[in-house]
Amino acid sequence: SVVLSWCRWHLGIGFAHLFLFFDEAGPQGDPRGAEESEPAVLHEAANKSPPGDSADEPPPSTPRPEHPAAAAVEAAADLPAGSVTLVCGRHPQVQAWQRTHCPSRDSAGPFAATQVPARQVLNAEMALALSRGRVTWLLHLDIDELFFTGPPDSKPSQAPQAKAPASRHGEPPSPGSGSIDAKSGATPGIAPGAGVSGAESWLARAALLPSAAAHFAALDSEGVGHMTYLNHEAAPETSEVHDYFEECTLFRRHHFSVPMTREARDAMRWWERRTGHGQYLLVYDCGKSATRVLPGVECASPHAFKTPKRRAGAGA
Prior knowledge:
Helices cover 28% and strands 14% of the residues. It has 316 residues and is of the alpha+beta class. The strands form four sheets. The protein has a five-stranded mixed sheet. The protein has helices at 2-12, 68-75, 92-101, 105-108, 116-131, 198-207, 212-221, 244-247, 262-272, 309-312, and strands at 18-22, 84-88, 137-139, 145-147, 161-163, 180-181, 226-229, 231-234, 250-252, 288-292, 298-301, 304-306. Residues 29-55 and 156-196 have low confidence and may be disordered.
């Protein structure tokens, strides 16, 4: 349900294509080569990967991931045809391609077997290759994150990105803690809809919000080639959470977006006192980034890309 919510949300707000990298090798003992493997692109008759640079070998097709979420995405009739690509991130053919083609192969490659961030960097660079000829911008998100383009009627250039980890720490915050509560109307249009089916609810809510396509078009018009978004963090109010996108409505706002009043500072300290290391946000506070899909772009980390400066602006 979480993966379906993630897909429906992002396609609903205007993303053209989703690349889902599953941290698995795929079906074991499959002797077939890339040309014979089952296509990784959902709802399409064949995997037609867009060409990369003239000197590049396009990423390989791989068998479809075995994860139950992959089957659920494939079976979801409400997802637009050809809108999702599934990749077995640890498939031998994928790893071989990454070792020879990813710009970060020397820095991230040696750690890919044991470190998730290293695999994320290589997967993002493979997604860049898959994106060429298909989309103009690529955003790197985890499966527990949603890109939030702002409340209804807001300007399309305002696009903070929200993180929703299913963390469970203590009691819910007291009134006046300074957090965002979607149920109070602080973020209209994204609170769970009573009596509406999951697919219908997500698509209806996403349609109310500013378009992600309009946001990235605005960045293009301003000559922007890379953008980093603040991350807000969900605070579950119950110990039992299943689809955190549906059930978590209370958020700790990123400290850059909190007014530095005494009341706000006291509220942040209230959260900090609940952790052993005095953390306000539990996971990270450096945001996530999007880049224009251009030759020479590299993934610096799961949080940012390195862009060739002279090519990053509009008209490159």
